[in-house]
Amino acid sequence: HGVLDPVAEVAEAAAGRGIPCHVDACIGGLVLPFWAGAGGAELPPWDFRVPGVTSISADLHKFGYAPKGASLLLFADRELDLARYFALTDWPGYPVVNPTILGSRSATSLAAAWAVTAALGVEGYTDLTRRTVAATHEVAACVGRIDGLRALGEPAGPLLAVVTDDGVPAKQRVHPHLWAAASARRGFVLQGQPSLRQSDGSLVPRSTHLTITPATHDVIPELTATLREAADEVRGGTVDLPADLPVPDPAALAASARESGDLDLTQVLALIEKLPRDATAGLLAQFLQAFTAPSAP
Predict the structure, then answer these.
(1) C-alpha separations of 144 from 55, 137, 176, 206, 235 in Å
(2) Which CATH number does the domain housing residue 186 bear?
(3) What is the DSSP letter of 159?
(4) Per-position b or e across 25-51, b if 16+ CB within 10 A of its CB
(5) Is the same domain home to 151 and 214?
(6) Residue 126 CB burial class (10 angstroms; 0-12, 13-18, ≥19)
(7) Cα separation of 138 and 48, whole Å?
(8) Are the C-beta atoms of residues 230 and 266 closer than 8 Å to each other?
(9) N or C: which end of the chain has fewer CB within 10 A?
(10) Whole-angstrom distance, CA of residue 120 vs CA of residue 278
């Protein structure tokens, strides 16, 4: 949802109980370090500058711009780092020692990631982040001017979660999933996210997720026009499901999607919101299994 967790508070609480604190920086790990230097806002510390943070992970294929297959796992001290090694001598074969539990894996992704990061360096990453910061500001400003929508919370980086603005009359509100579908018909794919009732009873509202990258900078006029036009198309619309909705047959849904070449994601997200989450996760797995199964000869 584009927000930065209170890492300092969590790390302090963990350290006080003797618990390691891992920071999952899979998305922000290679863009937030350059954010302020690229014209973005100053962010609270979230990395090894924070006492109590013991490890950090970051995906190189996201804002590291490397091919998939290589990620970073960093440790604050050698004792924790040692725990990731796997070694075996109590067997009849040769001594085995590997830096991860993956004993056989191609080094191609690792070499590609090293080449990309070495070629870009700090200057290259800062330049790419500068484009991302500028694009993020443009998209956020566009959303802020669309009647019936608003950004959720205070985004700290290049991710935005856009929700319905419940502060306007119902006829002016924009359903974020209908907005995403209308944007897709115009050539831009946005990611719908269902609402979620959390364990403390609070509700995270349904939203549409946007990840802004340097490439976004080159299509800002087209994207912002699409966001406005899509909102105008669906403003006041709703996604309604029957109160006595039966559990759908995932195989039948898969067959229909394969035949038509289309899947109504707004209905899928509405189903996820309405049905128990443990049931919907299983239905999604069954749907994908049926959808990707080889056709009968």
Answers:
(1) 36, 10, 14, 17, 15
(2) 3.90.1150.10
(3) E
(4) bbbbbbbbbbbeebebeeeeebbeebe
(5) yes
(6) middle
(7) 31
(8) no
(9) C
(10) 43
Is the same domain home to 22 and 62?
yes
- Residue 264 belongs to what domain range? 250-292
Instruction: Count CA atoms within 13 Å of residue 213 on its CB side.
Output: 8
Of 95, 124, 153, at which residue does a domain stop?
Answer: 124
Pair 186, 288 in one domain: no
Pair of tokens at residue 280: 């919907």
From 93, 124, 155, give the residue that closes a domain: 124
Residue pLDDT, tens place only, 113-159: 999 999 999 999 999 999 999 999 999 999 999 999 999 998 899 99
Nearest-angstrom CA–CA distance, 2 and 154:
8
**Both 104 and 30 in a single domain?**
yes
For residues 165 and 138, membership in a common domain is answered with yes
What pTM does this model have?
Answer: 0.89
Q: Per the domain annotation, does 242 fall within a domain?
A: no
Would you say residue 1 lies in a domain? no
Helices 277-292/265-274 angle, 10° precision: 150
The domain total for the chain is: 3
Indicate the residue type of 100: T
Q: What is the pLDDT of residues 236-264, one digit of tens each?
A: 999 988 777 777 888 888 888 888 887 78
The residue type of 242 is P
User: Hey, what are 74's tokens?
Assistant: 């960093």
Query: What is the number of alpha carbons within 13 Å of residue 139 lying toward its C-beta?
Result: 31
Token digits of residue 195: 């609402």
Cα four-point dihedral sign 179, 180, 182, 188? positive
Same domain for 154 and 87? no
Question: Residue 95 sits in a domain of what CATH number?
Answer: 3.40.640.10
